């Protein structure tokens, strides 16, 4: 019985070794740069981190397909290096000797990429699935709706235009009143002049002005 169990385990180990190896069918390479991402706060990549990675891949597979029964044991890691890089495959839970098609694994990883990154405090640049293209993060929605911003800008322009028209109208009105007042003052100066405190009519510059005293004297003296 023990021999049979050991034989079975050895066969499974050999099968897993054949399934998970560099450039194997449906295998993906992962490169992680923890030091680059976290600097002095970088953590060590150990068996616990590997377990978390397997759990996140299993989670992604189960979330991708509601009928999936993928377990952590179905995620195999191999060729782990200190830098850190490794290969992984996902085995078929029903057979456990074949791998899940790479297209399904890729779709599951892409759909859950942000969740996987957040689990390791990394990003697409520091947690790289070399055969899986990065997904664009969802656009950040502004706290204030766009239409409200546009409405505010238009309203400010309208108010500024109204204020400009009012101010320019007041200035034109003041200027017009000032010109009218100056014109009236000028006309008064031309029509009436003061001489020794007595107002006199303005002289007719063209016809001249005859003094009445001298006119009377002219009537008394007749020509010879």
From TrEMBL:
The chain crosses the membrane at residues 146-170. Residues 1-17 form the signal peptide. Its main location: membrane. Keywords: Cell membrane, Glycoprotein, Membrane, Phosphoprotein, Signal, Transmembrane, Transmembrane helix. GO terms for cellular component: extracellular exosome; plasma membrane. Residues 24-224 form the Collectrin-like domain. It is found in: Cell membrane. GO terms for biological process: positive regulation of amino acid transport. It is a single-pass type I membrane protein. It holds the Pfam family Collectrin. This is TMM27 protein. It comes from Myiagra hebetior. The gene is Tmem27.
